[in-house]
Amino acid sequence: MKILYAIQGTGNGHITIARDLLPRLMRQAEVDILISGCQVDVDLPWPVKYRLGGLSFIFGKKGGIDYIETFRRGKLRKLFREIRALPVEAYDLVISDFEPVSAWACYLRGVPCVGFSHQAAVVQKNAPRPPKGDPIGQSVLKYYAPVRQSFGCHYLPYDKHTFTPLIRQEVRQLQRQKKEHYTVYLPAYSDKRILRILSAFPETRWEVFSKHSKTAYDAGHIQVRPVANDAFLQSMATATGVLCGAGFQTPAEVLFLQKKLMVVPMKGQYEQQCNAAALRMLGIPVLKNLKKKRIPELSEWLRSDHHVDLDFPDNAESIVRRLLQAAPAVKPARQGHPVTNHHRFRELILRKIFYPKESL
Q1: Lowest mean pLDDT among 10-19, 50-59, 176-185, 340-349
Q2: How far apart are CA 138 and CA 134, in angstroms?
Q3: The domain containing residue 75 runs over which residues?
Q4: Do 239 and 288 fall into the same domain?
Q5: For a designed S-S bond to 20, which of 72, 78, 168, 331 qualifies (C-beta 3.0 to 4.6 A apart)?
Q6: How many angstroms separate the CA atoms of 51 and 69, rounded?
Q7: Could you tell me whether strands 93-97 and 50-52 are parallel, antiparallel, or unpaired per DSSP bridges?
Q8: Furthest-apart CA pair in the chain: how many Å?
């Protein structure tokens, strides 16, 4: 069996999941790896056959996505070329971790594609939602990387297609300690904004992992370091608590390590708002943004010893088995000859996004 495993390159969570799933898949099939996007700080220890531009959302420095930079780097014409050129017909199965090039190529050519991602769990009807709806955000989650069947991970198994978080082995093997520092990872904020808020707590030692700095430096009681996998894991494993964004993988690993947790969801990012809603239901404090008026909430969290105990068993083998079992049942997305014309690709993609109920 020949599999294409396609990974979304916005953020590090998709890569960390792949580091645990891929060796298990490789024991049962021939696997090629695809990564699209440009926001990854963590490497894979295996060759990557396809490195594509894809369609990445670029982190800003004020708590949200930088849509101007996202649009500037988007290069839709290149995206359509990548979809057209990707040889998905050469694979028995494509597994897409919220990766758009492979998903759309399969959709338009009728190649079996199974989705496995946290986003797939977020869109399930029983998954937690924020009080305020976001039709655009919901559409992005649904049509950014369309698949015929999907499975996902969430903090709790809200339905039969949802697993508890996949915690990588390097996190499971960490030696937990409780030292006096707090670990911080807020990629959507500038170092300047983070330091301004954290400086309000001069008695607290902070270890900040920065998305925006290439060199390490100290600012009094605050250490700032570029994102590095091993250093970040050691900091997290020995921290008193972790302050991070409301992405999925880092909060899940913090919960597994039984550390105190506070999250700051990105502005205008519906998936993170959903994650924040789920975490709030579990008793995790959520900071709306990183502004000075939030300092009292941050101070209360620092004084608290509260953490949440959840059981996240090692489920990687079960996930791989479920993905492989699903492969024969995945019906082709469409029948007929592959679409090869560039303009026809663009037309079909835009029609599916804006007229989702219309048959292609």
Answers
A1: 340-349
A2: 6
A3: 2-167+315-354
A4: yes
A5: 168
A6: 20
A7: unpaired
A8: 66
- pLDDT of 50 above 70: yes
CB atoms within 10 A of CB 180: 10
147 and 188 co-located in one domain: no
CATH number at residue 88: 3.40.50
Same domain membership, residue 285 and residue 204: yes
Q: CATH code at 261?
A: 3.40.50.2000
User: Could you give the CA distance from residue 61 to residue 298 in angstroms, rounded to a whole number?
Assistant: 20
The four Cα atoms 114, 119, 124, 126 give a dihedral, to 10 degrees, of 140
User: 3-class DSSP state for residue 37?
Assistant: strand
The C-alpha atoms of residue 279 and residue 339 are separated, in whole angstroms, by 43
122: closest CA among 96, 101, 98? 98
- Total structural domains in the chain? 2
Average pLDDT of the chain to the nearest whole number? 87
Q: What is the crossing angle of helices 135-143 and 342-354, to 10°?
A: 140
